[in-house]
Amino acid sequence: MAQDIADSKSIGIARAAFAATIGNMLEFYDFITYSFFAIQIGHTFFPAQSDYGSLMLSLATFGAGFVTRPIGGIVLGIYSDRIGRRPAMLLSFALMGGAILVISLTPSYNAIGLAAPVIVIIARMVQGFALGGEVGPTTAYLIEIASPQRRALVVSWQPTSQEIAATAGALVGVILSRSMAPDALESIGWRIAFLIGAACLPLGLWMRRTLPETIAQGEAVGRESSNHLVLAARHIRLIVLALMILASGTIATYVTQYMTTYAQSTLHVPSPLAFTVSLVSNGVGIIGALLGGWLADVYGRKPVMIWPQLVTLLLTYPTFLWIVHAPGAASLLFGFGVLSLIGSLPFTAFYATFTEALPQNIRGGVFATIYAVAIASFGGTAQLVVTWLLHISGDPLAPAWYLLLAAVAGLIAMSLMPETAPVKVGT
What we know:
- The chain is mostly helical.
- Helix content is about 85%, strand content about 0%.
- The chain contains 23 helices and no strands.
């Protein structure tokens, strides 16, 4: 184990970060792809008397994957603190790959009846467990391989990998929607998108097996990990603030992912344009996540959290107003693109702050659990809430009001977070 830790220097930070986050990226591709094809999946597994009913059943199944996230966060997060980051990341990735294969190959409701939605729901719950235990160990690993002066930039590959995954899913959606007829897209197109992710499973497993370990089994980290609850209680204020910020971020993330469905079902724009909106907004999110990490290392964590979050708050309603009154390529691509770019800046800084503020012996478990609880509570319900609000109000601006509420909560919590950047601390 000691040799593993020493080898982390020779393998190089860049390669180790890439090896860790490529698995994270592939897992999020599989998870996010479901939301892009919610309409088609609903028709396949959840036939209903109305398109609204079918979509709500599909989104409820998407939300089922969030129910098991906290369990995965606790189990795999603590496992990573006791046994190591690498074993936890390998296990989560293998579970995710198996679940995505099951979803992509399950026959339709018309073919096998009630068994089809049951199988899909169970597979989604396995995915949720795996993804719940993915983010904490990966983020802890990135902090632990980075130099103090570059922690935020290295950690930025965590949200960046998620944006890359979302971009890849949207790109696949654009290609399939442009090359396949609507009937073909509904019957087999979404399955092709899922199988593309599953095909990357061997690569992800191989890459993660090459990672050096960053904690030594049997030392203080391992011995004290049984006191996770007691140690975590000492950081309760930090944890509450983190929950608020993650709630804000996950609502923004999953409402953004919902824009493909929103553009088609509410704004009635063609499918290729709807997928292109997600492609562009997630693509610029990659830039924003990396830029946020660099800025947080140079200027500190809090300024990079607070100011972009404030700008996002001010721009959200006017952007949606423009999109609703003039739905088209210009408003959708530019509007959501700008919101995604600015909105992705604060959360890289937050990832670095929260991880730095936690002791190593509880870092993986606490981060994974808090992240999973926030995502399960707010991410898993975000698309259902937006769809419900749109349905009962008939107001196409409903997503904007939900985003504004989340942004305000996030801004308040960000202003109360401690500053942990070496460039600021002690100066």
